[in-house]
Amino acid sequence: MEIFSRHHWHGAGFWLVAAGVALMSAAPRAQAQTPRTRQSASANADLAQRILETMLRVPGNQAGYRTVHAKGLVCQGTFTPSPDAASLSKAAHFQQVTPVVVRFSDGAPDPLIPDASANAGPRGLAIRFTLPDASVTDVVAMSHNGFVVANGEEFLALQTAIVSTDPTRPHPWPVETFLGSHPLAAKFVQDNQRVPASFATEAFFSNDAFVFVNAAGTRQVGRYQIRPVAGERDLTDAEASGKPSNFLIDDLKTRLAAGPVEFRLVVQIPNPGDATDDPSAVWPDDRRTIEVGRLTITSVVADSAAAEKALAFDPVRLTGGIELSDDGLPALRSLVYALAAAHRR
Ligand code: HEM
């Protein structure tokens, strides 16, 4: 099986490249240790700049589109909080129904990636809640539980390894060396080759942890999970191989024409000792979860292409009752997303 051809290399980009390499790489060695110090503001700004410059050199991305998650569809609906939501957070949308705009996406840098490609993942779901005072707050989630790396320095190292890899050169390529020493990253690219039956049968995860504060001032750290009410279902390889290029986008349009698509918004609560500062460290499934509400997606927006160009989600666009945790990644992501949005517009 040809997994990593020169054609592939030029056709897609990061997720494709990494996916191909994951299959070819030898058994992973121990996870490399990187110190997890919080960055100062200026160090973070410099790191963000270097990350975006490196991401923009990954083959596949195109001017005018997001440098990752380039292909997507913007939809709208409502969020209805559960009776338990207010016990976790005093945030306005945890108390009353709010309108939402969401963008579903393929994670690949290539805006023309076929939805059923093994290189299209992870899928994304970004949510913007419009609160009663007209302010907005975002949740930016992806379909893999566990981020590819623990922090921004490792993310830059991964991107650098990708853009330094020339598949005409002998092995080991820099990206193979990276994945060989980062087993969670190798697992991430391997897992992301699966193809969901629909965006409506995909689960999404914030990976990053936030602190929820209720009206009594009680603080609770947690991570978002967004679970499809239709149930989670993937395609078999045989099913995926026959799918048209835009099947996920078209399926969503068809479903929405027939009725709403729903997700449960859940917050996973760590046990004492679970790492809250490392988005690559997955908390086991037996951890307590609190269902905080239901996302009811009702329609595609009138002009999705114009809407996605105008939209720029931000993982730290929070609101009273939801705060940053000791996970340093969202603050860095926020800087990179702002630079990326300015670059693509
Ligand atoms: C070092 C860490 C990360 C970096 C540098 C990064 C970078 C980026 C960039 C540059 C964009 C394009 C933004 C734009 O043009 O508007 C983006 C989009 C996106 N990212 Fe990340 N990302 C990181 C981690 C994550 C994580 C942890 C998640 C979720 C668990 C995530 C989910 C998404 C999604 C869903 C989008 C598309 C948002 C939309 O639909 O507009 N990213 N990311």
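^ protoporphyrin IX containing FE complex. Strands lie at 71-81, 98-106, 123-130, 136-142, 204-213, 219-228, 261-268, 289-300, 322-324. The radius of gyration is 19 Å.
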